[in-house]
Model the fold of this input.
Amino acid sequence: MTSPQPRIGVVRFPGACDDRDALWALSALDAEALFVWHTDTELPDLDAVVLPGGFSYGDYLRCGAIARFAPAMEAVLEFASAGGLVLGICNGFQILCEAGLLPGVLRRNESLSFVCRDVPLVVERSDTPFTTRCEEGRVLTIPVKHGEGNWYVDDELYAELEARRQIVLRYREPVNGSLADVAGVVNERGNVMGLMPHPEHAVDPLLGSADGALILSSLVESARERALAAV
Amino acid sequence: MKATVLVRPKQGILDPQGQAVESSLRQLGFSVGGARIGRVVDLDVDAADVAAARAEVERMCEQLLANPLIESYEIELAEPQA
Done:
């Protein structure tokens, strides 16, 4: 008997643009991926949730500021507080920060320019549910495409995050002005992660890199373990 | 009641937009020592009196209009017409 496919929901906000890629990539990595509409007040039975990239609600006011109040986000907050796995990619990361599920804020890039290219990332932790397939210190090549990826927290909070090892990914070189070149962080409990780079755009060598599959297949595998544990 | 919210980048927070505008102003020959760019939100608030309106707008700022990590806000309320 083959192990069951974990069910992973991809929340579609108006203005999302990477939702289909996320769904496709998760399906290709052997998950049963399904869309969740932003007005849904309840989530279906899921083993993980992905908040995809894009420009939810036109990025009005601040990126992610409006999306965090979407009905589906209430359900995602509940899911996360029950320990459910949540991965936010790019705009999804911005939404998780605005919602207070992850520390910090994503500001306008230091250069004021939109940045769109493959970047090298250093994996700082391999013991999160999102990085089990990576070794610490490994360099992943994954594309970024954002105008607001300049992550910031104050010094005091940064020291706490360092002490708790909540920084999961760093750019190997400056990309957007992000504090300490942070590209991805995890919450204290370890079940919610956000990152600016787009793993869903790097799951096949044909796309330039398959390194993103290491992140997404870590998530699929962790979700599968949870699905099995729940049976 | 008319209310105006001024949202500003907090002191010490990098403001690349302000820096770009400052350098443009200098290129135009203006002598400026700093430019910071914020946001203005004009509101029409349904409230019984000024105190209630202020409390309501403060809640709006805390919940949505400003991100306290990087932004400060100021609320101005127009005196109601007699």
Chain B touches chain A at residues 13-14, 16-17, 20, 64-65, 67, 69-70 (CB under 8 Å).
